Amino acid sequence: MILSLFRRNPRRAAMEVLYDRIAAASRQPALYTDLGIPDTVEGRFESLALHTVLLLRRLRTLPPPAGDVGQDFIDTFFKRMDASLRELGVGDMGVGKRMKKLAHSFYGRADAYDGPLDRGDDAALAGVLGRNALGQAEPAPALAAYVLASDRRLAGQSLDEILGTGPVFADPKETPR
């Protein structure tokens, strides 16, 4: 029984790899330099949340076991958020409160992005992204173009491709502005 604690769980390992790929996509310098996401802790969370929402949108449209993969991924996402808070020095007593706030923020953004993405509404998406991802009153049309292009690109990927080579997002440098 004690040895089972040291065995590698292949499902957990796959989710860690997928998380690392999403994190890498969310850290592309052009997202910050060209598309305006602030290069701050909050901005990096916004970018990570945005890429996670895009991945989860794709997983929702795929046949089983994609739903299970999505749930496993979101569990990994929040475990990594918890670990990040602890690395930033948030004490045990404050982690729960901050995690609740992060979860509320994440799911609020997912809801806010889904409607305009479902409708293909560039203007509404630009407005939501301006407020959330850029923290400004002005819309973010260049970021919206990147998000729409990424959503279209993900729509052509199978679960095997997503888990194998990782999700492929649009290139932020090549996004029309």
Task: Give the arrangement of secondary structure elements.
Blueprint: H1 10-26, H2 29-33, H3 41-61, H4 66-87, H5 92-119, H6 122-132, H7 141-155, H8 159-164
Helix pairs in contact: 1-3, 1-4, 3-4, 3-5, 3-7, 4-5, 5-6, 6-7
Polypeptide structure, described:
This protein has about 180 residues and is mainly alpha-helical. The chain has one domain. It is about 70% helix and about 0% strand. It has eight helices and no strands. The chain is globular. The chain starts with 9 loop residues before the first helix and ends in a 13-residue tail after the last helix. The mean pLDDT is about 90.
Kindly name the structural category.
mainly alpha
Q: Please compute the radius of gyration using only Cα atoms.
A: 17 Å
Strand/helix succession: HHHHHHHH
**Proportion of beta-strand residues:** under 5%
Strand element count: 0
Task: Give the overall average pLDDT.
Answer: 92
Family: Belongs to the UPF0174 family. Belongs to the CBP3 family.
InterPro entries: Ubiq_cyt_c_chap, Ubiqinol_cyt_c_chaperone_CPB3, Ubq_cyt-c_CBP3-rel
Organism: Salinarimonas soli
Pfam family, one: Ubiq_cyt_C_chap
